[in-house]
Amino acid sequence: MHNLLPDGFLWGASTSAHQTEGGNVNSDWWAMEHDSAGTGHIKEPSGDACDSYHRWREDMDLLAALGFTDYRFSIEWARIEPAPGEFSRAALDHYRRMADGARERGLRPMVTLHHFTAPQWFARRGGWSAPEAAGLFARYADAAAPVYAEGVEHVCTVNEPNMIATMASYLHLLTTGGPLPAAGLPEPDPAVTQVLIEAHRRAVEAVKSRASHVQTGWSVANQVYQPLPGSEEVTAAYSHPREDVFLQAAAGDDWLGVQSYTRTRIGPDGPIPAPEAAERTLTGWEYYPPALGEALRHTAAVAPGTPLIVTENGIATADDTRRIAYTTGALKGLAAAMADGIDVRGYFHWSALDNYEWGTYAPTFGLIHVDRRTFARTPKPSAAWLGAVGRTRTLPEDAA
């Protein structure tokens, strides 16, 4: 089984701008967080988050010292284009300094163009439901070229487009009073799905036209749909609009991001809850380390020939020993998939920091603890443990 990581293998941790930067006042999520009507799932606003807009150097210093060789972060569309067609030179310079700062510390930057948040003006136009959405996103991808044109080898266009399309359906059901599914996810809005696929393709063209060397892809949330006996056809029909159509859209891309945390079991009537006795994480998800290996295998089967990068994998827990145990199990699945010939080019843990988790700070995914009052960063034992893999380029023995 693969134990030694191949040369060039990406070994890093991930963050997103809105979840860590703080003060992202022009974004649609900031507006949602402060909407008195609300949608019920937002328990607290992001506020200052981790203040990483100012403290990114410290974040990168820690990751580099721990042994990581790569860092995935997103740039904020709402900061770069605060008004339609009005691009902030200062914001572009800021993210350019981040890309340069990563390289100076020995961290290869992976830049994500869109990680769930968009400018408020984009949302007011209808967001991803607007007919001009794909063109507007491609314009932004082109304008962001100063950030990625030099010294950046990987650009992720859109983070979890299947979750964006699902959220569109979820919000529609909330506002219309429609029934929410008892388990599992609503079916993604089919029109939004197609717009996102078009936006991805146009953004890839924009990036390639400005920096042909950049390897482009997008990342998909893999739910590891497991059919109960006799439910194989139901599972395939359930998975296709929620996941597989987004994987298939990656055909011809330089890479495809796999994001995996847990599994979803499917019975004859659709998703069923996790077993009563199952261990749960702070997000309520089933503790299921094999998910990563299964997600890699499913993705490789649906999108054959496209190299894979694990762009997110992790666990929300207050017990760091469970984080190490979970990640050990996940890496076992990664090693087995690679040993079976699946082309995996990298692994990014979610997340580098305890950060804002879309409505609450309660779920702690971070390798590094962040004090909410002082912003002091304290690496957890899991950070040193996982960073050592970057230094030795060797997966833990019990994961081999």
Automatic annotation (TrEMBL):
Keywords: Glycosidase, Hydrolase. Pfam families: Glyco_hydro_1 (PF00232). InterPro entries: GH, GH_1_N_CS, Glyco_hydro_1. The keyword Hydrolase applies. GO terms for molecular function: hydrolase activity, acting on glycosyl bonds. The keyword Hydrolase applies. It comes from the Bacteria. PROSITE patterns: GLYCOSYL_HYDROL_F1_2. It is an enzyme of class 3 (hydrolase). Its EC number is 3.2.1.-. Belongs to the glycosyl hydrolase 1 family. This is Glycoside hydrolase family 1 protein.
